Each structure stands twice: as structure tokens, then as C-alpha cells.
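JOB MANIFEST
job_type = single_chain_structure
chain_count = 1
residues = 265
[input]
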Amino acid sequence: MNWEDIYAHAQEWVKEAGNRIRSSFDQTLNIQTKSDPNDLVTNIDKEIEQFFIKKIRGVYPNHQIMGEEGFGDELKSLEGIVWLIDPIDGTMNFIHQQRNFAISLAVYEDGIGKIGLIYDVVHDELYHAIRGSGAYLNQKEIPVLKDTIVKESIIALNATWVMENHRIDHNLMIPLVKDARGTRSYGTAALELVFVATGRVDAYLSMRLSPWDFGAGAVIIEELGGVVTNLRGEKLDFLSQDSLFAANSGLHHSILKEYLKDGKW
């Protein structure tokens, strides 16, 4: 398998998709809801996923595709080569702000991440990595992650998880929020993962994400020596939804041991 060719095609297609999204900014969006009134999808999400699928099928007809909007394959295993597509991660931000969203594209082989690309469309920032060759922001190599401690760290965490909610005991998260230097929430898992990769935040935690949300970010962070697991410290499940915990190695270990060990995730 020529991974460099796949990598080049993926970068080309992501940039073309970004141009299509930027050209949609003056259009009236067709907005629909999915699982709940705040789970939004637009015609642009659907069009961009279909764009990627057409490109992939045209060049790599034997590859499988998992996409957020459901136009790909129904996968029962990760055998072979699988593309994970989130055409617009942060659709609510896309609708309300026209910023703080990204394209997330990953390629896995037999469950192992080979290629990850996350494209911040508005800022024209492409974060990308191919396994074993480092990670980059556009053409500049991203430095390997350095360990931090909780009291000097910024944690990306949605405020929902420190309020009473139906997923977790919110009291488990309060000590971490109190002890951290600060918290942030951007409303897009893809960008929050690359912010971990670049050290803009030191850790990112979420209670429920899908494989297309974290597939590309996991490749990029792991290429820089970071750790990406679920909140139990286990390997991620790329066939269903799971919790997510990404951080530099030292911080991942200390948060898991000191704050998350008693959680029922």
C-alpha cells in the first residue's frame, strides 16, 4: 500500500472541501436536527461527506468508509483500510459563528491509525500526520509534547460535565476543574484535539464521541507522544461511541490516577 499517495490525495481533497465550505458562507443553509434539537446537520455537511466518498470510491474502490452523515458503509469490523470522515465537526459553530469548526479525515488499517488530517477551514490551518513521520501544522513540524502538571494545565472540558447531568456524577469532575489552571470549551472535538497536539490546551475530556470525531486527532496526538484513551484509560472503540481522554503522557497518567479512577464511565 502506497501510504504517501493516500496521504497526498487526502490533503488535496481536504483543501478542496475547505474551499467548498468557504464558498457556502453566503448561502442560506438547510438546517435539520438529528438525535435532539441541538444535534444539527446542514446540507453542506451532507454535500461535503458525499464529495469525500465520491473521491475515495473513485481512486480506492476497495476501501471502506465510515462517515458521520451515514453515506458510507455499515461496518462490523475495522479489517482492511477504513476512512473516517467528519465533514464538519462543530456544525453548531458553523451555523452560528462561521468559525470554530473543522474537517476531520482519518485513514486506519486493521484498526491502526495511519493518517490523520484536521483542517481549520476559516484559518486555513491543516494539521496532519502520517504514522511514523511526525505531525505538522501546514508545512511546519509540530514539536513533541511536553509533560505538564494539573495546576499548570488548561483543560478542555464542556461545562455540562460539571453540572448535574444524566451521563456522569458531575461531582467527580469538580476537583479537576478546581485544581487546573483553567478550562476551555470550543464545541468541536477535532479542534480541541489539535489544540492538545499543539499545547494550546493540555488535556481534552469528553463523555461521548463517535469514531469520526476522534479518529484523526488520535493519530496526530499519538504521533507527538501524547496519549488518547477513553476515560477508563482503555483503548478507544472505533466501531461505536465512547468517552475520550487525550493529553500529554505525564498529565494523562496523573489525571487518570488522581481524578478519574473512581468514575463509572
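[summary]
The longest strand covers residues 81-89.
The CA atoms of residues 176 and 258 lie 9 Å apart.
exit_status = 0
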